Structure formats: structure tokens, C-alpha cells
Amino acid sequence: MYQSINPFSKENIQNLAFESIESLNEKLIRSDSAYKNWRKYSINDRKPYFKNLISVLTKEKELLAREITLEMGKPLLESIAEIDKCIGTTEWYLNNVDAIIQQHLPTVSIEHIKSQIAFEPIGAVLGIMPWNFPYWQVFRYAIPTLLIGNTVLLKHAPNVPGCAQSLEKIFKLAGFPDDLFLSLYPAVEDIEYIIASPAVQAVTVTGSERAGRSVASLAGKHLKKCVLELGGSDPFIVLADAPIKQTVAEAIKGRLQNNGQSCIAAKRFIIHEQCYDAFLKELKEQLNARIIGDPMLKETHLGPMARADLKEQLSKQVQSSVAAGADCTYKHPFDDSNSNFFSPLILENIPANSPARAEELFGPVFSCIRVTDTNEAIAVANETRFGLGASIWSNTITEAEKLSQHIEAGSVFINGITRSDARLPFGGIKQSGFGRELSVFGLQEFVNVKTYWVNEQ
Locate the Aldehyde dehydrogenase domain: which residues (predicted)? Predict the structure, then answer.
């Protein structure tokens, strides 16, 4: 069952039964039919629909943002920013798709041969998406996918059915042809049926390692293209000359964004011993000033965890880390008992094999690690099985740039928190997945790079 429960009030918003195989099959047929028509449109013919979509998102922004906050608990201002990011990404692809295609499709000169390379659509792309950014995660694959001529099938997380329904609705309101964007509500055991369908040509997953392995296995079994964006344990490396107050402010933003529930959140704070004590002192002072409470209030900085089981899992990871030898040296004074809230806390002296260093902690926990030099900082940064993002903080940019080349991650930010941006490719290495979303590379993931060859003699 898909079940939407307000994580702040614990009110049951809606229950939605799993779809039957018959219903899923009917949608797969409709999607395939829509694709066969949509692929005939030129990109210029498709563009007006995306302009309409921007207008719909702009008009409905507050309503959509409130639904995000109701279903998964992030502060309302962050939900509004999520819709703004969807608008910005749609605008970027709309304004740049022609240049992308022209720049990356050269004509190869061969004597007596006319040749051409084309990006052509492939069919329906199934997106298996998470609850933490219920609109943004969908938009960043759906926009380039639809613009290039494919169709979208969305299997959203079970705790955000309202967002899944609204996503389908806004594409209809924008006037897109019927069935280009369809939300599916399958039971887990029926996902293979969808992937195996001849209508589905590719799968993209944002989620846990377990989900990624399962879907990648099914995609391989049925020979479907697959992109995985999985977990992360991003290092936030603070060098000795970093400006403390500013860096701490960014550390808090990087860790607490989305209530600490983000794959690219800063999770392991690797701090040079020369500034470690000053950093921790400032961190505790700034954390004390954070307002925790009702996520619908615009003054709130931190809302509840999205589900009770997520809080329980995070609590177990913290307890296991402390049992292994870590010290909990700070906890925000907010009373998080009998609720889905998790008060921010700081762990220090963390053993390398404990969850706080070896696993992804999906919530507002600052795992702080003291290092003696940059070589140790790099070693600690790379000790994780993940490789999504990283950041380095220093007043000496050239030194930070040299260090960035040794970080095993899909992206490294210097003096800025890790974030996704429509203009730049996004994705990871190691157990954080493979493939890329956004920018030129996101558009190229789900196309047929087709060669045309004509002998003119």
C-alpha cells in the first residue's frame, strides 16, 4: 500500500492500493502508443509544452510546495526552493537543447561518404524515485527524457503518493499529449514485470544501495539501459586556513538541508587539527541557534524525519557508533522524544569501522574526524565505499584544487557545499552508482546515438 502520513502531525493523509497487473499493463500499452506519436514531433514542436509547464509550476508553486512538506516534512521554504529548481532546470534545457545537439553531433568527413550522427529517442524510461526530493529527483530525469522524445513512467516512493499524483497532473495541465507522463503504483514484486515490458527501454533509479542492486540486476536480466544514483557519505574537508565562522555556517547548511536526508549532504567532517577545536566550538554555537519545529512555518530551519522507521534506523546507527567507541559531545536542546524529530548531534573520536564512518547516516548527525595533515584528510575521505560528492574548504584555492584531484567522487566542490545543478553532470562512482544526470550527459543517457552512412558514388 502507498501510504501518506504527515511526519509532523502523524496524520494519515491518504492510502492508495497497489495497482493490479492488468492496470499496469494498460498503462504500459498507453505509454508505448504515446511514444510512437511523440517521437515524430521535432524538438521545436515539443518546446511549447515545456514553456507551459514552467507557467504551471510557477502558478502552483506554493500549493505543490505545501504538499511536499505535508508528505515528507522538509521546511516549507526548502520545498518552495525545490519547485524553483525544477523551473530553472526546465528553462535551462529549453534554452540549451539546440546548442547541445549541434555541438555534440559532428558530421564526420569521409571521402565519397555522407555521414551523420543523431540523438534519437528510445521509448519509455522508467524512473524509480525517492521521497526526499519528490519533485526535483523526477524533473532532473523527466525533462531531458521527454524533450528528446521519450516518454516517462514514474514509480515513486510509497510515502509520497500525493506528489506522484500531482506530478502527473501538472504535465496534463501543461497540455502535454496524453500518457507521456504516467505514474505507476506497483507492489515491489511487480517491478520486474514493468522492467521486462517491451515498452520500457531504460530504467533510472535514485535510492538505496539495496534498491540499486536489485533494479540493476533486473535491468541486466532484461537488457535494459540503467542509471543509478545511490547513497553517499560525502566528506567535508576543512583545511587549516579555512575561515571558521563562514565554513561552519556552510557545514550546517550542507548537513541539515532537507532535514539531513540528502544523498549529497555533508556527512563526514574531516577537520585539520590546527582548527579542529575552533571549528567544533563554533559549530555548537551555531547549531544552538537553529529553530526546530513545524515545517510549515517559514522560520523553521529543521523539520521532522520523513518516517518513524528512518528515525529509528538513524538512532541505531548512532548507538552502534557510540558502543564502538565514538563520543556524542553535543545534542541540540530540542526535545525530540515521542515524535519523528531527530535533534542534531555531534559525534567525535569515531572508530573507522563504526557506522558513523563506514555507513551513510541519513539524518542530522555531524560525524567529526580530526586529522593531522592533508594526506590523512585524503585517506579518510576515500576510506568510504561511496563516491558521490565531496567539498574542500580553504583560503588557499590552489592547494584545495591539487587535493581535489585525489578525492574519489563524482564531484568535488571547493568552498561551496555539494549540490546538483542543471548545467553540470551529476552522479557518483563506487557504490554510489553509475551514469550521469543533468547537463549534456543527462540528455545523452537515454538516446539512441544513431549513425547514418550514405555512399554517394
Answer: 2-451
As for how many domains the chain has, the answer is 2
Quote the domain boundaries for residue 180. Answer: 2-230+432-455
In a domain, 72, yes or no: yes
Encode pLDDT of 193-220 as tens digits. Answer: 999 999 999 999 999 999 999 999 999 9
pLDDT cut 90: percent of the chain above it:
95
The mean per-residue pLDDT over the stretch 126-142 comes to 98
The C-alpha cell that represents 388 in the structure block:
558521490
Residue 57 domain flag: yes
Does residue 400 share a domain with residue 327?
yes
Q: Nearest to residue 86, comparing CAs of 145, 129, 164, 139? A: 139
**CA-CA-CA-CA torsion sign (290, 294, 299, 301):** positive
CB contact set of 376 (below 8 Å; sequence gap of 6+): none
Is residue 263 part of the annotated active site? The answer reads yes
Q: Across all residues in the chain, what is the average pLDDT?
A: 97
Specify whether the backbone of 451 is left (phi greater than 0), alpha (psi in -120 to 50) or beta: beta
Q: What H or E segment, with its residue span, contains residue 366?
A: strand 365-371
Residue 337 lies in a domain: yes
Contact 366, 345 (CB under 8 A): yes
First and final CA of the chain: distance in angstroms?
63
Catalytic residue among 19, 67, 229, 437: 229
The single-letter DSSP state of residue 292 is B
Q: Domain check: are 240 and 161 in the same one?
A: no
Q: Residue holding cell 555507513? A: 359
Tell me whether residue 368 is in a domain.
yes
Among candidates 92, 10, 21, 106, which has minimal Cα distance to 308?
10
pLDDT grade, residue 1 (50/70/90)? very high
Q: How many CB atoms lie within 10 A of CB 288?
A: 11
- 384 and 330 in one domain? yes
pLDDT, one tens digit per residue, over 273-312 is 999 999 999 999 999 999 999 999 999 999 999 999 999 9
**19 catalytically annotated:** no
**pLDDT tens figures, 413-438:** 999 999 999 999 999 999 999 999 99
Q: So what's the pLDDT on residue 103?
A: 79
Choice among 263, 360, 368, 445 that is catalytic? 263
**Nearest-CA neighbor of 381 among 351, 365, 363, 403?**
403
CATH code for the domain of 347: 3.40.309.10
Please tell me whether residues 60 and 138 are part of one structural domain. yes
Question: What is the pTM (predicted TM-score) of this model?
Answer: 0.97
